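Protein in question kept in full:
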Amino acid sequence: MKLRIEFFNKYKISIGVTSVFLILMSIFIIANPSVFLNYRAYMAVFTTLGASIILAATMVFVVASGELDLSFPSVIGFSAWIFAVIVKSGVSPFIAFLVALFLGSIVGFLNGILVTKVQLSSLVSTLGMNFLIRGLIMILTDGIAIPLPFLRDTLFHTIFAGRIGQLPIQMLWSIGYAVICWLIFNRHRFGGHVCYIGDNVTSAREMGVRVERVKIATFVLMGFSSAFAGVMLTLINNSFWPTTGEGYLLLILAAVFLGGTPTWGGIGTIFGAIIGAFILGFIETGIVASGLTGFYKQFFYGLILILALISHRYAGLKRK
């Protein structure tokens, strides 16, 4: 009995958000069983859910360190554009992929420098970076898409956006990526350092934690993950769109906060963020299948997020 209580106390946030997901899916199944008892509905959601899982799992590191990265939607678009331009010129998509990952990481590094060395607010500086990069994309592309239909039957497309039976392979990539993030966050000292910094920067420095280096690393990781997601989304659509990545900002932040990572840092949960991404990923499909219009989507996003934050307040997640 004691072990059960300890287990519940340790994982109560993850248990809570998982319960919310199961209740939500039960409601959707009751509302329209013909849709939600059909595997095709799940496969359709899984097609784009992989990118959300990758981004949400990585954002936990940034938020747990006490910072925010609002530039990642534009980093997604920038990396996708770089990938498309290089592939369009005839270069191997594998090389283009590595270049996109590298440049995405560079943007993350610049964000980290602005926050740690220049000592700018991460909220304001990354928001500015978001506008800057998106504007650059629009200027350089003139708002014109880059079609990449020739990628459809390539080995690269099969590896990163193919299917195993009916299952989109990007879901396997995202789950594997999230497991690695979970291991780093919960089983590696880097994850501990991130939480120490988010809880108390001064104490972390006194413990010998290299605060600036760790914070920069979280932003680099976010840039890397954004680039990964950008290439994945480009492969799914077989084209680059100048608006690639838009719409993910509030969605990913909501998934992280809904999953049990509080806004004030110091603690975080990768598993909760993943379940949060699942919840938000299925809401639109569930709303439409239930007979409501898509206009209800943002209403339910906001409602669930507010309820989640209230639950954090009364579940022992106290401010520093």
